[in-house]
Amino acid sequence: MQTQSMNKPANAAGQRGVSLVIAMVMLIVLTLIGVSSMNTAITELKMAGSMQQQTMALNRADELLRVGEEDVVAIVSDPAAFDFTTAGDGYYVTADNIDVFDLSWANLKANQGATANDLYVTEYLGPKAIPGESVKVSTDGRIVGGAVHTFRITSKSTTGKGARRLVQSLYVTVSPP
């Protein structure tokens, strides 16, 4: 008669660690899924942060456009002639032929924006003839071949994380600067 030990199952010699191998494979698969999920989450977090920085830069650039347009209103409403020839003040004329993408923004006056990263420039594009007849505001008189004065305002905003936005608007007045 054979006696079996209480510690060993009857077929102990037939087991070769298959359960251990299957468990290890399952752990490796679960680890790979976890690492992949973490990488996806980190990438999505970076994308969301970048989008937030881009939105902040765009909002600030839009705000600076409004400041620039208010500046144009002040220039037009001031009875004293405005001088667009002072270098580095952020005011240009068409003849200056500036390229806002190649402009030395760092040399502009800092009082145009909240920081050196938030600036705007104003270009006076000159009078543009209006063909035909138009009616002058607040009068009954007709103006034949009147003109409007066009300004192009370009604002730039850069965040600390490197997001940069350039935004332009055209502002048209009936009064010259």
Short description:
The protein is 34% helix and 24% strand. The chain is of the alpha+beta class and 177 residues long.
Note down, in words, how this protein is organized.
- This protein has a four-stranded mixed beta sheet. It has a two-stranded antiparallel ribbon with strand order 3-4.
- The chain is built from one helix and six strands.
- The chain has one domain (18-173).
- By secondary structure, the protein is of the alpha+beta class.
- The N and C termini lie far apart (118 Å).
- The chain is 34% helix and 24% strand.
- The mean pLDDT is 80.
- The chain has one helix at residues 18-77, and strands spanning 91-93, 118-129, 133-135, 142-144, 147-158, 164-173.
Note the main attributes of this structure:
177 residues, alpha+beta, 4-stranded mixed sheet, two-stranded antiparallel sheet, 1 helix
Topology, pairings included?
Elements: H1 18-77, E1 91-93, E2 118-129, E3 133-135, E4 142-144, E5 147-158, E6 164-173
- Which strand-content bin applies to the residues? 15-25%
Percent helix, as a range, is 25-40%
What general outline do the C-alpha atoms trace? rod-shaped
Question: Residue-averaged pLDDT, rounded?
Answer: 80
Q: End-to-end distance, in Å?
A: 118 Å
> How many E strands?
6
Spans of at least 5 consecutive residues with low confidence: none
Strand count, sense and barrel status of the largest sheet are: 4 strands, mixed
User: Total helix count?
Assistant: 1
Order of strands across the widest beta sheet?
Answer: 1-2-5-6
Order of helices and strands: HEEEEEE
Oligomer kind: single chain
Q: What number of structural domains do the residues give?
A: 1
Q: Which structural class do the helices and strands define? A: alpha+beta
- Specify Rg, calculated over alpha carbons: 35 Å
